[in-house]
Amino acid sequence: MNTSITESSEFLGHPKGLFVCFATEMWERFSYYGMRALLILYLTKHWEFTDAQSYVIYGAYTSLVYIMPVFGGMLADRILGSRKAVTFGAVLLVLGHTGMAFESNVQVFYLSLALIISGVGFLKPNISTMVGALYEEGDPRRDPGFTIFYMGINIGAFSASLLCGYLGETYGWSYGFGAAGIGMLIGLMIFLWGQKYLDGHAEPTSDFYMDKKFNITYENWAYISGIFMVFASYMLIQNQEIVGNLLGGFGAVCIAFWLFYSLSKCSPEERDRMIVVGILILFSLIFWALFEQAGSSLNILTDRGVDRTILGWEVPASMFQSLNAFFIFTLAPLFAFMWLALAKRNIEPSTPLKFAIGIMFVGIGFLVLVFGMKSSTGVQTGVFWIMLIYLLHTIGELCLSPVGLSSVTKLSPKRIVGMMMGMWFFASAAGNFVAGLIARATASEGMAGGENIFTLAQKSAFVDVYTNVGLIAVAVGLLLAICSPFLKKGMHGIN
User: Are strands 306-307 and 381-382 parallel, antiparallel or unpaired?
Assistant: First the structure.
């Protein structure tokens, strides 16, 4: 099949399929971030879990959201292809978000989370892989294309945090979660309509999916595996300690696979690139462990410890989750232009150096917030400092996340790019679980769920934790910056 990009298949200088993926992911992220903005508040206020319990549940949920893409990526690579995997994942997501609108039964709540976890597992890695497949190797539009794709993610996240957050905290949780479900349904409809613009890039690589075992096609076995993923997620989300053990065990398996494949299945050039991408994935874990405080401890801090009054209106805490997305889609075009302009002048920072800058910015964000908390009299911190940490963290994210997605598709051998994308999201999973443990360190153990109080002792706990993680992040970023020339050499001409 000829995979070249022709003029007729382009829109605004990019493949039309990019914009199908853009719109689908935008609405999927609308549903996900609409629910995410409310989740920690829902756990503490509606189900009245303690802060410590809520952080662990939240961390387990968000980590599972990023574990399942490993399996979704494998099933797409070996059997389904990206298009069918994304469609199946979208159906699971619609069902899960619909279930979140029912508040009366905690088991329905856990099942809904399980459906969302599994749906993301099928959709998330494969739609990113789909974007990479639209560009030939060496196409300079790839990084700008991923940045445009990333803008779609954040337009969805921005609008969802505002709309779902406002509806959920003002009119009731079911309204916020219901709006998220409608968004996912729109995303599914757009993807079904726009599949023709993918130009065959998202189909199975062989006819293996048509073969049968026990008179059932492997395609249907893949869907059965998806249902098993829902059941497993349902059990794990209620047994969070098992999630941590699984992360450790599965992480060891991933490292073993990475080393085995790099050393025995790759050419020398592929091996060097695989080593680099593995190191970048490891450093991304550290970034996400800190960045993902946004939906947990930062959300609680904003709800209880920040003066949220703006122009006489006390803004719901969940709506501040929109700040990251707002800064993304306002700054992303500038970053896309900047990387392209620097590349034309042969002075673009290498991917490892971009990672280092991203990690340092997330650390600086925490240190700046600590300064603001210490300079604020009494318990409440000024809203300016919350806005500033989101700005600094967003700059860090733009240096690392879209660049990381692109680097996985560029540096990984094409035959296992889905698996490596899954490992990228596994690092996010581990980071999210660690994020829950970091957030738990800020909790007041004696505080009952749902109590909207904030003391000087709890403020001090936040200051101590955020100071430590901020300093660690800056040190790690400096270490990676020092090592970046050696990693760049191992990329063999790919930036």
Answer: parallel
And the tokens for 222? 């893949």
pLDDT in tens, 225-243: 999 999 999 999 999 889 9
CB < 8 Å & 24+ apart, contacts of 410-414: 410/132, 410/137, 410/142, 410/494, 411/273, 411/274, 411/276, 411/277, 411/491, 411/494, 412/273, 412/274, 412/277, 413/266, 413/270, 413/274
The Cα 52–Cα 470 span in angstroms is 21
Helix (H) or strand (E) holding 313: strand 313-314
Q: Which tens digits make up the pLDDT trace of 117-129? A: 999 999 987 887 7
Check: CB of residue 145 under 8 Å from CB of residue 16.
Answer: no
Percent of the chain with pLDDT over 70: 95
Q: How far apart are the first and last CA of the chain?
A: 27
Residue at 491: amino acid letter: M
* CATH number of the domain encompassing residue 79: 1.20.1250.20
Number of compact structural domains in the chain: 1
Span of 143-147, 168-172, 236-240 with lowest mean pLDDT: 143-147
- Structure tokens of 34? 């609409």
H helix intervals, 46-141: 51-75, 82-100, 106-133
Judge whether 393 lies within some domain: yes
4 assigned to some structural domain: no
- Phi, psi dihedrals of residue 110, rounded to the nearest 5°: -65, -40
Strand 381-382 and strand 10-11: pairing?
A: unpaired
Task: Let me know if residue 179 belongs to a domain.
Answer: yes
Whether residue 5 is contained in a domain is answered as no
Q: Tell me which DSSP letter residue 77 carries.
A: I
State whether residue 447 is helix, strand or coil: coil
- Domain coverage including residue 238: 12-490
Q: Write a three-state SS string for 314-357.
A: ECCHHHHHHHHHHHHHHHHHHHHHHHHHHHHCCCCCCHHHHHHH
